[in-house]
Please model this.
Amino acid sequence: MIIYVVDTNFFIQAHRVSYPLDVAHSFWNKVKQLVEEGKIISVDKVKNEIYKNEDDLKRWCEDNLPNIFFKDTTTVFEQYKQIVNWATSKSDHYLPNARAEFLNADEADAFLVSYALADKNNRIIVTYEISEPYKKNRIKIPDVCLANDIQYTNTIEMFRKLKEQF
Model:
């Protein structure tokens, strides 16, 4: 079964821009349903990024997402090493601060990609980021995915692939 692994921006973009919690109840009900059905998951580093803010999004996640939704990234150490090696090998392209930010242990991106890589035939990353292969000052999730044969999509395409409406 295909599992969608959602990025931090899946939640933040929805909450702050596209589907505010106080307006778009159907979106958030659909997210909760997909979580309960095991169709979407995320990782512990995403939880940390969301939970660092004391806001409505954090409270919604605490109230609606079970602890097992956020998967433990210590289980994907081998894949993380592969992603670290890839990012390190790109020193001729990405600026040092871009590589340092991407590989920062408190940032979710490298761990999110590593988690998807661990079962890349059955895990698809969901992110609002778009590929920018010529960008030097930030490593984007889609570019890491493309280089490592990992599938990714955006929120609306995920809903389409799941044949979901709200």
The chain is about 50% helix and 10% strand. The mean pLDDT is 97.
